Amino acid sequence: MQEFPKRVLVAIGLIPIVLGCIWFGGPALVSMLSLASGLAAWEYYRLAEARGVRPLRALGIVLSAVIPMLVHARFVGFWVPPVSLVALLIPVLLTVTLFARGVSGAPMAVVGDTLAGVVYTGGMLSFAYALRYHEFVVDAAGGTALVMLPVLVTWLNDSGAYFAGRTFGRAKLMPTVSPKKTWAGAYGAVITSVAATWIIAAFILPRLAHLTLGIPGIIVVGIGLSLAAQVGDLAESMFKREAGVKDSSQLIPGHGGVLDRVDSLLFTLPVGYVLLGFFLRYTP
């Protein structure tokens, strides 16, 4: 309860900034995503170090922050490295590890954790940019609505899980990873997510984006986003439990770290991008 006022004040300050960056898109959005990616990568590598691995932290943070920039560069028509050149990332990491860590520095774990941190943070958050400029988007309002669909469903999914778990929760979902989560909470989260997807698809997307999902799309997208959000939350809980910490950091007063705020979004953004590509349809 002592943290609640901080959480509210920080949310009141951050939400308009996030919405503004999504609405204006372009440099504003990519700047926000690059900053969030770099900070999330820093926290991820801190968790890795807490369990005894020394990833290439500086290199990983830079690469994570650069990924949204490359996505933006491709969108505006600048030259970006082709996939064949990006594939050289692994040999580069191995070369750096060879000289910086050596055999005694757990080189396989170093390369794996460094690469995982880049993909997990910068790679996943970049799907927010892909949604903002999805092929179905025609203006800023439509792009913002499309990005906010997985964001809002994720937030409401957490609320549904909390209230269903508190009311009906008995059987634990995965006690070794997250002791408070229950099967009732998981089911409540799915129901809430489908309902939230229906509301957004029925009342927000047609007005702001001239798009619709249809009943099959609402069900599949709602369930898919709920499962992705729950797995994303459990994944970060697993990382923190292995590292022996409660929060990924204390960067955000009352909220913990960046990873603590975006853990579910790291899964729902890419899943939402894929599923929406299948089910979105224009409305007159």
Could you describe the 3D structure shown?
The protein is mainly alpha-helical. It has one domain. The protein has twelve helices and four strands. 43% of the residues are buried.
Describe the structure using short key phrases:
single chain, 284 residues, mainly alpha, two-stranded antiparallel ribbon, two-stranded antiparallel sheet, 12 helices
List the helices and strands and how they pair.
Blueprint: H1 4-24, H2 26-50, H3 57-76, H4 83-86, H5 89-100, H6 107-125, H7 127-132, H8 140-168, E1 172-174, E2 178-182, H9 183-208, E3 211-212, H10 214-243, H11 258-262, H12 265-279, E4 281-282
Antiparallel strand pairs: 1-2, 3-4
Helix pairs in contact: 1-2, 1-8, 2-3, 2-6, 2-10, 3-6, 5-6, 6-12, 8-9, 8-10, 8-12, 9-10, 10-12
H and E string: HHHHHHHHEEHEHHHE
Strand order of the largest sheet: 1-2
Report Rg: 19 Å
Distance between the termini: 48 Å
Helix content: over 70%
Helix/sheet category: mainly alpha
Give a quick precis of the structure.
Helix content is 75%, strand content 4%. It is built from twelve helices and four strands. The chain has helices spanning 4-24, 26-50, 57-76, 83-86, 89-100, 107-125, 127-132, 140-168, 183-208, 214-243, 258-262, 265-279, and strands at 172-174, 178-182, 211-212, 281-282.
